[in-house]
Amino acid sequence: MTTITSDKPITHDLYHPDVYFNRELSWLSFNERVLEEALDDTVPLLERLKFLAIVSHHALAQVHAHKATGEVNGFLVEGPLAGGHNAPARGKEINEKGEPVYGERDKPDLAKIRDLGRPFWLAGGHASPEELHEARGVGAAGIQVGSAFALCDESALKDEIKQGLRRKSFDSVLQVTASSVASPSGFPFQVAQLEGTLSDRPVYEKRKRDCRLGYLVEAYKTKRGRIGFRCPSEPVLSYLKKGGDVGDAEGRVCICTGLAAAVRDGQSNETSDEACIVTLGQEQSYIHELMPSADGSYSAEDVVSYLFSLCPPPVAH
Fold first, then answer.
1. Burial of residue 282, with CB atoms counted within 10 A of its CB: 0-12 exposed, 13-18 middle, 19 or more buried
2. Angle at 44 between CA 41 and CA 47, to 5 degrees
C-alpha cells in the first residue's frame, strides 16, 4: 500500500501519487483485515437483527407467522389511535372529520396473536401504567409509547411546536385527526391540529407543492418502458404528466418534508422556513400525570417512571 511520506499535506499537486492510496491494494488490505477478524475465536458472531412485524389484526399476524419467507420474531399490534400512519378500516365509512370509521371487524383477537407463541407489544392508546398492566395481563410483552416521548424535553421537535402541543394537550383542546387524504401513501395519517402548520388550510394552500425528499414515491412504468417515480403530493401537473390521477393528488400533503421541518435542523427552502406537519397519537391523558401546569415540562425519565409506577420493568437475564 502506498503511504503519504510527508508530515504536511501536499496541496499544490493533486496528481502527486503520495496523495492517494492504491485502490486495489487498499481493498485487498481491507479484506485481509476482515478475514483476520473472522479467524479470531474471541470475536463473537454477529447476531441477526430481530424482526418485529407491525400488524393491526390477528389475521395479518397469522399470515406473517405461517407464510413469511423470513423469520418473524414478534409483533407490534398497532391500533387506530396510534400516531403516524394507520391501517385502513375494513369498511368504507368516513366520519364528519374525514376520518375512517373503525368497527368490530377491525379489532384484533389478542388471544389468537398470543397463541402464535411469539412476543407482542400493544401500540396506540396504551400510554399509561394501567394499560401496561392490562397488556401484560392478556399476554403481551409490553406496550409501545411514542407521543409521550415526542413531547418530552429531550425530543428533537422544535421548542415552539413542542410547547404549543403540550399547552393545547394539557388544556384538553388538542385535536388529532386521522386524515384519510393527507398522506401520499393513501393510508390514514394522524395529523395534530396546530396553528401555523400544514393542518391549517391557509398554510397548506400557500405552500408550493414539491417532492424533494421522495420517501413515499411510487414506482410506475414510463411510456418508454422504464421505471419512473411519482408522488401525489408533488406539483399536480408534474404528477399528471407521469400518468397520475388528479383525484389522487387532491388534498395530499408532503409528509416527508413536513415532518422533517418540525424538528430542529430540519428542512428549509431557499427563502423561508418550510411549513411543517406534526403527528401524534389521539390518546393524550398521560400529559396531566407528567406536567403540573400548561406551561410545564417533563423528561423522558419521567415518562419511564410513570409507565412503570404500577408494573416494575422486567429483569434482564
1. buried
2. 145
Taking alpha carbons only, the member of 84, 121, 125, 129 closest to residue 304 is 129
In the prediction, which pLDDT does 110 show?
97
Distances from the Cα of 34 to the Cαs of 27, 28, 40, 46, 300, in angstroms? 11, 10, 10, 13, 39
Query: Which of the 8 DSSP states describes residue 49?
Result: P
Cell triple for 171: 388544556
Q: Are 113 and 61 in contact (CB under 8 A)?
A: yes
Q: Which domains occur in the chain, in start order?
A: 1-43 (no CATH), 52-149 (3.40.50), 157-261 (no CATH)
Q: What is the per-residue pLDDT for 23?
A: 74
SS3 state of residue 12: coil
Q: Is the distance from CB of 183 to CB of 85 less than 8 angstroms? A: yes
CA distance 44 to 42: 6
From the number of C-beta atoms within 10 Å of its C-beta (0-12, 13-18, 19+), residue 313 rates as exposed
What pLDDT score does 269 carry?
55
Hey, which residues does 125 pair with through a beta bridge?
Answer: none
The model's pLDDT over 50-95, given as tens digits with 9 standing for 90+, comes to: 899 999 999 999 999 999 888 999 999 999 999 999 999 999 999 9
Question: What does the pLDDT look like over 192-212, one tens digit per residue?
Answer: 999 999 999 999 999 999 888
Q: Which residues of the chain have pLDDT under 50?
A: 1-6, 10, 270-272
Q: Are 212 and 257 a contacting pair, CB within 8 Å?
A: yes
CA–CA dist 281, 71 (Å, integer) = 30
